[in-house]
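Proteins fold. Shown next:

***
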Amino acid sequence: MAFFTGLLLGSFYTALADRILYYFYGPGRKGSGKWEKIFMKSSFCFSCGQNIKTLDLIPVLGYILLKGRCRNCLAPIGWIRLTGEIFPGIILMIFVLLNSNWAYSFFSILLIGHLYISLVTDWNFFLLDYENTAFLYVWGFLAVYTEYGYSTELLHHFYTAGFVFFVLLVLFLAGKGKKFGMGDLILAPSLALYLGPLLSILFFQLAASLSIVYIVIIQKNRKAPSPFGTFMAVSFFIIVSFDLFYKVFIQFIRN
């Protein structure tokens, strides 16, 4: 049940991310009633405009039936959308198996969904919407609160978020906003709030490493801009996955 719930949420957020890109940054930005179209308009191919059949909208199965391409124009759908559907399903299933805390698990998946939106907007346009980041704070807080309640552990998560904001603010002002943007500064504490002290250290080390690899090896230009929000999102997914599978392994050994 958790797996299929995660698939549905993953399908919703991948579609939402595509529509935000289309209506706010792409060809659909010139029209009116954007939010109504985002949530009410029938699913359609962004390449040819044809409506997508109901069977093709089934998470994962639709991708397999279509062989990763639009049924009408054969435009590639992209593996990132398939991953965006499967990942929440697997993660939500493991969350529930580990602690049976549905509230914590559900809020965690909502946070992952909104972080996926941050990933695609920053990768494509070097932009992080503040409205979307606000949801990350909401779901992150609700997740850690339902997991720890009002406790010392909860305070540790808040202290971590505050410390991260302070450090990044100093770096932001020292670099005059050239190293990373305001969107990155606002996004980072929301993820630290969820991860807590130890995982946040690993998370930022990985995000910084990915950013360096992107600039030095891929772009081959040390002055090239880096979508740091994207690398924070990817690092968050990796750290959360590693932490969950580690806990599964420990539980398996104990059993």
The chain has a mean pLDDT of 90.
